[in-house]
Each structure stands twice: as structure tokens, then as C-alpha cells.
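Problem: given the chain below (90 residues), write out its structure.
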Amino acid sequence: MFLIDVLQVQPLPERRLKLTFEDGLKATVDLDAIVKTYRGVFLPLLDDRFFQQVRVDPELGTIVWPNGADICPDVLYSVASGKPISIQHA
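Solution.
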């Protein structure tokens, strides 16, 4: 696990997001590569106007939309950095 928060988000066309992480990494991610099927809470993200309402929730350390949709910051960091998520067992 990375435990690295998202500090900034800028929505881009075609469901892409420009992200800045607390370790300084800046990257553009394609949300389609993360959300394979837009159902349930993710369905509204297909509407460009709704998608543009993304913001960072500093308490959660990740991106959120008004309907409660969010993406795990570790998943975002993994996609942005190209590093796989690894879980270490105690």
C-alpha cells in the first residue's frame, strides 16, 4: 500500500484526470482504465458535466463526486506511477 494522498485534481476531456499526489508525483490517468463498467454510483460519471464536478476530499485523501463516488487513492497512485499495489502481511 502507498498511503499517499491526492492533493489536486483537474478534470480533462474523455474522462481523464490530472492528479497531483503528496509525494510530488503529477500524472494524468484515464478513468476508463480504472472503472471498467460505469454502473451504480459510477454511472453519472459518463455525463461530462457531472464528471467535471470532481474534487479532492482532504479528509479522505482522494477524489470524490457529489453523489459520493470516490476512487481509492492507492488505486489512483498505482495507475499514475505504474507501480503495483503490494500488501505486506504482518
